[in-house]
Amino acid sequence: MGDIYGFPGPAGDPGGGAAAQRRRRRIVAWVVGLVLVVLGALGGGIYYLLGPGADKMLAESESEKPKWAGGITPGWMSEQVGLKVPGQATDRRAAYRITSRFDIGIFAFTLPRAEADAYLKPLHPKGSVWIRNFHPSKDDSRQTASFEHLGFPEPETLVKGLLKSSLCPGDTKDPNGVGLKRCVDLYAHRYSGERTRIYVRSYFEPGISPLPVAPTGA
User: What digits encode the pLDDT tens for the residues 107-152?
Assistant: First the structure.
């Protein structure tokens, strides 16, 4: 009987050589088929990655990038947070950013220094204190929503004239903050002898829906 490599069979076995050849052809055909299957799978994977798969991954990557919502006004943002802005405030600006983890709302406004003090003092919880920014940071990656988008310096980077605090629902009975819907970070920057800019930041999880205008761009 012949072996699988096609050597002749023993004497008296005239069919051994033919049987070995048939087995060899079957093995070769099996190996070729297996190679074709592997190559087909690789080709399909490469096509997917270069074609539809690449488009899908790019779309998913784009969808995870932070985006600024359009049509955000200081009045709308103030209403979502539940913190009133004085009617005499000027230079009002607001924005809302959507991220893959949570959304962030920011707004800021300016008041004469005496009026800013009169606004902030009753708003602040009794017994709490404002903190000076002794450790300024230039890295805003933690917040992912910089006030620089509004054209203002980032409060975390300021030292001179900056005080910071936080406020949560139930912390105050002042009319301007009694309707507070979520916790906020507060910053008061006395950037001149006569003016104070007040910054407000709040986090939304889940985000607000619907928004005034669908978000576009990063």
Answer: 999 999 999 999 999 998 777 778 888 766 665 545 556 899 999 9
What is d(CA 62, CA 40) in angstroms, rounded to the nearest whole number?
Answer: 31
Tell me if residue 99 falls in helix, strand or coil: coil
Q: What is the pTM of this model?
A: 0.68
60: its two tokens: 């998913």
d(CA 178, CA 190): 25
Report the C-alpha gap between 179 and 78 in whole angstroms.
Answer: 11
Ramachandran angles phi, psi of 103, nearest 5°: -105, 160
CA atoms within 13 A on the CB side of 51: 6
Q: What is the maximal distance between C-alpha atoms in the chain? A: 118
**CA-CA-CA-CA torsion sign (210, 211, 213, 218):** negative
Q: What is the pLDDT of residues 144-188, one digit of tens each?
A: 568 999 999 999 888 899 999 999 999 999 999 999 999 999 999
